[in-house]
Design brief:
With 423 residues, the protein is mainly alpha-helical. 73% of the residues lie in helices and 0% in strands. Helix 4 crosses helix 13 and helix 7 runs antiparallel to helix 8.
């Protein structure tokens, strides 16, 4: 049997098991990559390559940093300050948090933004006695939409600009994505403070040892060390430190917290959410298989074939949006954009239409990764602390996905007409 077909079968089984949760999703993810190894789709080295992926390493380091913030009382202290300024009502807190996340993730890594903000949000929820899950899913959604505002906010934007340049076409400018990214971001905030938070399960944050402390009163030394390490990590992830990658910054920060006694070695190990680690590490090789075996391309060609010989540009753009969005729920959004952008350019040129609206739709759709916990690292990061199930992402993510689709098909042709010479 062809490797692409085997990969598609494994993907179908994974999707079914994720939705039904007949077996734990982390076991499903790792079982999928092992199955691909058994069938020869992946090499033995590729089967467990996800465990050494830089993003997985970043996850581990930030889980430890987050645990230290909770253990020392720093997160609750910050939470108390925010609560005094904003109040204890969920809507103002969510609005402020999402707007700040959108701004940060438009210029920095959305994964890093979520990793830095997550323990603070948990501290806010503990201080205000609010369920943490609505704010955490709002954090992930805001990070995803905020990344669409600039070229560096998310990899698909860079891929779209690069594909145009490779085809000898003037690429999108740095802030050009904001024409769509800002409306998407605003809509995401409105959605979450209205319908989204009502669809989210109301799960409380684990108190850890914070419930026994009041701010930093019981552990001032640990709190000061935590602040120093947190600043180091934020600077390293957001702005970068020469010679250090983001995952090196996160792990070195975690090591410092253990060496200074803020956390014991056992506490550091136990703070890592291993479900998140194995879930993400298991899905990365499957995403790689979709790309390398041509399974993703097979899906793309089959769907593009549906549009027929003479599709309308709007219909073609809509189909590629749906395809890009569908692929990115289970494979890398970077890979999905890299796969579809050349296809979009070639078909647009055959129709005599501008490739700009098509590629903008592909890039935006690749960032609309709302409906699965493995669609994007921010979704995976909040899964454990928010105590989410797979179906929670479907319930909360599907409406904002449909709304995002409507926003894009209305806004994109307005700024990038299909036939600019006729306008």
């Amino acid at each position: 049997m062809d490797n692409a077909v085997i990969t598609l079968i494994v993907l179908g089984v994974v999707a079914f098991l994720f939705i039904t949760e007949i077996i734990p999703i982390a076991i499903t993810a790792m079982g999928a990559t092992i199955a691909l190894g058994i069938f020869g789709v992946l090499t033995p080295k590729q089967v467990f390559s996800g465990l050494s992926n830089p993003t997985v390493v970043l996850f581990a380091g930030m889980f430890i940093v987050g645990a230290a913030m909770l253990e020392s009382g720093l997160a609750q202290a910050i939470g108390n300050i925010v609560v005094k300024k904003v109040g204890t009502k969920e809507v103002p807190l969510m609005t402020a948090m999402m707007l700040l996340t959108i701004i940060m993730s438009s210029l920095a890594s959305n994964t890093g933004t979520v990793a830095c903000f997550m323990p603070v949000i948990i501290g806010i929820c503990i201080a205000s006695r609010l369920p943490a899950s609505p704010l955490l899913i709002g954090l992930a959604i805001a990070a995803n939409t905020g990344g669409t505002i600039t070229m560096v906010g998310t990899p698909p934007n860079i891929i779209a600009a690069g594909a145009l340049e490779s085809a000898g076409i003037a690429p999108f400018s740095f802030f050009e994505f904001a024409y769509v990214g800002i409306p998407l971001s605003i809509v995401s905030v409105i959605y979450m403070v209205t319908l989204g938070r009502r669809l989210t399960p109301k799960n409380m944050a684990d108190l850890v040892s914070v419930e026994a402390t009041e701010g930093l009163s019981g552990s001032p030394r640990q709190g000061k060390i935590c602040i120093a390490v947190l600043l180091y990590v934020i600077v390293g992830i957001v702005f970068g430190i020469p010679g250090l990658t983001t995952e090196m910054v996160a792990i070195s920060g975690a090591i410092l917290l253990v060496l200074t006694g803020v956390l014991t070695e056992r506490q550091a190990y136990s703070s890592i959410d291993w479900v998140t680690i194995f879930l993400f590490a298991g899905m990365l090789p499957l995403a790689q298989a979709l790309d390398e075996t041509g399974a993703g391309k097979l899906i793309a060609q089959s769907v593009v074939g549906i549009v027929g010989d003479n599709p309308s540009p709007m219909f073609f753009m809509s189909v590629l949006f749906v395809l890009s969005c569908g692929l990115t729920q289970f494979m890398s959004n970077t890979a999905a954009a890299a796969l579809l952008c050349p296809i979009g350019i070639s078909i647009a040129q055959e129709m005599g239409a501008s490739p700009y609206p098509v590629l903008m739709a592909i890039a935006m759709a690749a960032s609309c990764a709302f409906t699965t916990p493995v669609a994007t690292p921010p979704n995976t990061l909040v899964m454990g602390p928010g105590k989410f199930k797979f179906k929670d992402y479907l319930v909360v993510g599907t409406p904002i996905l449909l709304i995002s689709f409507l926003v894009c098909i209305i806004v994109i042709p307005f700024f990038w007409p299909f036939f600019p010479d006729k306008v």
